[in-house]
Amino acid sequence: MTRSRKPVVAGWFTQDPAEGGGFRLIGTRCRGCGAVFFPREDHACRNPACDGAEGDLEEVPLSRRGRVWSYTDARYRPPAPYVSDPARPWEPYALVAVELTAERMIVLGQAAPGTGVADLAVGMEVELVPGVLHEDAEHVWTTWHWRPVGGGR
Amino acid sequence: MSRDVAVLGVGMHPWGKWGRPFTRYGVAAARAALADAGLDWRDVGLVVGADTVRGGYPGHVAGAAFAQALGWQGARVASVYAACASGAQALDTARAHILAGLVDTALVVGADAAPKGFFAPAGGDRPDDPDWLRFRVLGATNPTYFGLYARRRMALHGDTPEDFARVKVKNAAAGAANPLARYRTPVTAAQVAASPVVADPLRLLDVCATSDGGAAVVLSSLDFARRRATADPVRIRAVSTVTPVYPRTVPDLPDIATDSALAVAPPEPAAGFRSAVVRAAYEEAGIGPEDLDLAEVYDLSTALELDWYEDLGLCPPGGAVKLLRDGATALGGRIPVNPSGGLSSFGEAVPAQALAQVCELTWQVRGLSGPRQVAGARVGVTANQGLFGHGSSVVVIR
Ligand SMILES: [Zn+2]
After folding, report:
1. Closest-CA residue in chain B for A62?
2. What phi and psi values does residue B321 have, to the nearest 5 degrees?
3. Does the beta-carbon distance from A95 to B120 stay under 8 Å?
4. Which residues of B touch A33 (CB under 8 A)?
5. What sequence ranges are listed for the domain Thiolase C-terminal (chain B) (predicted)?
6. pLDDT digits 0-9 by tens, B249-300
7. For residue B226, which of A123, B2, B57, B110 sits 20 to 30 Å off, Cα-Cα?
8. How far does A131 lie from chain B, in Å, by closest CA?
9. Which domains does chain B possess?
10. Phi, psi of B108 (to 5 degrees)
11. Complex prediction ipTM
């Protein structure tokens, strides 16, 4: 039996990268004021000067590349609902805060496997890649990762 | 017309880790504060409780729990939840009742018995809860965010892990002189460097623990204090509990992304939410950083204490490490920060923490802090920040 791929949160990123346009985070944009939201805001624009409502918020793919605003790592196993196998030794992963120039916002994400804090630097260009958060009996839970462009320094 | 209220009394239960019911710590702190005020519990007009924290959200309804534990006596009651700022919002609620003339006196209490280890979100499948999502999707704990801020300081200002360790050494030295602190042992830079990394570049001794503790403050109108012949009472001159202004451009707990600055330019690019919280307190009190004798700030991490120096306006952005290295923020320095020992020596008992900051300032401006006394202290400020866009700053004056 093959396990199906399931996004960790529905609607936050493109499900099937093969479907043209590549793998992208999906936000929303307010037609009224141009504000962009990620995670997606579907009900009311959060710009206090704008009364944009449900019909004014349209889906928009976010930039595929950005620059590292800062980074850190998780040396200890995070508590639930983060899923990890307690029977296996903990393997730290890096977390990256990435500045998207076009959207003028910062989006956090885990670094791609194999990218540790020693491979990262503030200001470095990184790109969005599809990743796997964890797997269970029924699903491969998918997410997004940030990876240094050109393999890092 | 003065908008000051008097601090009649303060009290704390020592910080530690016992796992007893939170009301025990709260009642002990409340009785200590009432005794300090010379006020009978039955004469208190309003009791305000800062709610406990469970999974990022309010746990026990604290106001009524404390009122019952102290013995129902018919007072007005309120409970507030504002994460790390809960104690300050409770104080602000009490102050507003007094200034509106609804009551003469109020007892404000915060206490908690914190779970061990990382603060974790509420259980179940809760994809509509940003606090649940950050753990589910990223495994982003509180130290994750502190690590991001610390690394950013290193890249922007050239701070080093040794600088961060210096904050711990300073605060541990102050905490060693505070009988209410949980950790009362001096710490060396070598000990910080030898502790395991939690969230690069921060090590275990850079990050504050979670604790049990309780703190209480008795407030009254200035008229009430005068009638009781309290000639020169300690006063609360400002309580800031302002929300952020859109767009927020710095990643903050529990969010996975910042606001976009595409539609609206950030109000002031250099000044983030923390400095806005403090600035509102300064404006309300009619003071500036140059008027301060001391400050109690929320050092959730050593590096975050350095951010606060700049947010308080004690130095320009990037100047915090120089201030620290010069000894200006240590006991005996020009502007001591965290003379109590800070969260570094206490560990965080969330609803009690903002009130504990006010207790420390009150003892300091009364000149009763013994070996931790800041000479001639008359004006102090507290500052904190926590989950969900909460922050607070209180100005205490004598
Ligand atoms: Zn809008």
Report:
1. B260
2. -65, -40
3. no
4. 263-264
5. 278-397
6. 999 999 999 999 999 988 765 568 999 999 999 999 999 999 999 999 999 9
7. B110
8. 11
9. 5-117+212-233 (3.40.47.10), 130-206+240-397 (3.40.47.10)
10. -115, 125
11. 0.96
